[in-house]
Amino acid sequence: MNEETADTLRGIVLTEEGKIPITKSEFISSGPRADVLAEPARAAIIEILREGMNDTTTEETLDEETGTRTIIQRSVKRHALSVVEIVRLSRKKDGLPKPLTKSQVYHHLGKLIEAGYVILFGTLKKGKRTTDYYRRVSELYIFESKPGMTKKRQKERITKMLKDLSEHFGFTISEKQMESLVKLRMMIAEIEHDAYKEMVRRARGDLADPSVWDLLSETITIYTAGSSEYAKLWKAMRDILFEK
To answer: Which residues of 149-176 are buried (b: 16+ CB within 10 A; e: fewer)?
Structure first.
């Protein structure tokens, strides 16, 4: 993430923290620091900073012999964002009941900086206008347990997923079937989470590397395949959804 070359950030004055290269990944064990992201607004800000936004980078070269000036512009993802940009991107963020306000973002950024998830990357001055930009400390945070994923929240997410499944694939799911499917999927999620913790513990490569992350997903699939209970739970879901 070479934020200095993004056209929007040309002329930015970096903080001391902003001069330090972003780390690839960081493992977060359960505890107070992980619980900071139990707040949906903070989790949303962290995700928005990871996803970034479209920008450009422009390179200009001059051939001294011919005097020809060449300008090359590339599309890039910029991950250092201003408060206004975070607010704007929150309007498209799933899982938020309504978009974030500027005061909310400022408040939660303070908590995220205090917990070591985010830094003030730098300040850009254009005329009389000064804009601060914020960036994650690590490209990828790997959690021992999903922050704030209580049984209630997990149930809500699974219920929404099943309703979306019904809408997009034409399944007819009764209220009683929905209750059974949610229960089954929550039991499956527990087995998957145990497998996730075991595979993260075994990991030797950088999990921010997409190829290593793909391998993590693959090993979880292989690991859970050894559980007869896991297979039975998926079979039970299949029988409900595809029953004749």
So the answer is: eeeeebeebbeeebeeebeeeeeebeee
Over residues 88-99, the pLDDT tens digits come to 999 988 767 789
Domain covering 3-143 in this structure, CATH number: 1.10.10.10
Q: Structure pTM?
A: 0.70
pLDDT (tens digit per residue) in 32-80: 888 888 888 998 999 999 999 999 998 888 878 787 888 888 999 999 9
Tell me, what DSSP letter sits at residue 7?
G
Give span(s): CATH 1.10.10.10, the chain: 3-143
CA distances from 79 to 24, 54, 197, 206, 219 (A): 14, 9, 28, 20, 30
